[in-house]
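Re: beginner question about structure tokens

> Can someone show what the tokenized structure looks like for a real chain? I only ever see the sequence side.

Sure, here's an example I had lying around. Input first:
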Amino acid sequence: MSGFVDGAVVAGIDGSASAVQAAVWAGGEAVRRGRPLRLVQVYALPQVKAPVAFGTHEQVRAGLAERAEGWLADAKAAVLAGHPGLELVTAAREWSPVTALVQESQHAELVVLGSRGLGGFTGVLVGSTAVAVAAHAHCPIVVVRGRNPHELPPRTGPVVVGSDGSPDSEAAIAFACEEARLRDTALVAVHAWSDVLADGMLRPHPLQENAAEIEAAERGKMAEQLAGWQRKYPGLAIELEVVRGRPVRTLLERGEAAQLIVVGCRGRGGFTGMLLGSTSQALIAHSPCPVAVVRPGGSTK
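And the corresponding structure tokens:
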């Protein structure tokens, strides 16, 4: 039995310092949301043709399970040192990390991962594995990062959300608004447009329209989208930034002063394919703060 806890904040543990930092960050998120925290370590038997060289399958399995429990105990101690009294459970699971995380997301309010890994989560944020988790998860996913690999994630600054004005970005905005409220900070909604790109592809011909007119139209579309959220969160300071440029560069720049970046995993315009290729890789690899990925239509609970 895996003992799923419905509505918990789930943190993936793999024995790395990055995962422990992510777990402590997840603990703070659980406290803000009034939710329990579930620490999960996923391990799998190595695929070898001659397992006798490493001991029997049961010996290897027992060793991996023991190591998993040790990593979970270390992460639990770190979390409770920063958040004493937090309701916390742990689970060591033998399975594929991606499959296990996606299953965890069916029950979780949020899944939190570190930006670098060891053990069972090695490579979980590299290439197709990250795309798979974000593409199939049933709740928002957060990748915890700091200004540099050895720094803790920032705790001050606004929440920044990237939006393209499409219905698909509504879930990301909803998540970002709630995060800003929970953190008692401002929300900066960023929309980047380009006269070179259209739907993520190079335009066959340069735009003939006046750039100022395009920007005014884009700002009007974004203002209309945000108006409903401002009414829902009347006490939340929402700042709208419409800029001419590339979405990734713009978000990375705004992230330098932020405590969280929120993006949707699909969209149109500048944010098309946010989790399909170089755009997502750039944010995950270089963001100076945690990054939340929210699927359109997915639960933000």
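Each token stands for a local structural state, so reading them left to right follows the chain. The domain at 9-144 is CATH 3.40.50.620 (Rossmann fold).
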